[in-house]
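sanity check this fold:
=====
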Amino acid sequence: MHVRWAALVTAVPAGGSPTIAAEGWRVPDEGAVGRLDPWRNILVMTRFGSIAMVVGSAAVITLSACGETAATAQDQGFQHWYPSTPIPTPGLSKTTPTPLASATPAASAGQAQASGLGTPAEKVSATAALKFDPSATTAKVGDVIQWTNTGNVAHNVTFTDPSLTSGTLNQGDTWQVKFTVAGTYSYHCTFHPGMDGQLTVGH
């Protein structure tokens, strides 16, 4: 087996000592010169020692580079932090929505029911001819107006104010309204288009 070591070269003659030269150190076969084993051991140990020094230097350089990188990242403000609770964004605050105000129902212009409001001051008939008779009526605030179905078909008295509107009036049924607010009120029958009426309430 032949071993060459950089920077040390020798040709060991039989019965002589190794001579150091500039190209390398060659050790003869182990079987030929048994007493050269110490030199071979020295060469092997020297070689592994050099390799260990190179590996150790590389490890030191690597660790140094890692430490420098970590320091650089810290200097630049990089932080790995995971808070347990979300951090609120500056300038954004949680606001409670304001509930919308409910619309105030308009006051009714009077009272209405089938009967019982008092003696009618004015009477209107819902006829079989699909007309209100009379179609125009005048009353005063506090008066009771009564509608009666005098025909043989169903009618109703429908105002813009639903609180004054009647249900279905069959033959002989009545509907009374007692107005508390002066004004002009139009009404109609939804069953028969064109069957309209008007009531003027004064003081």
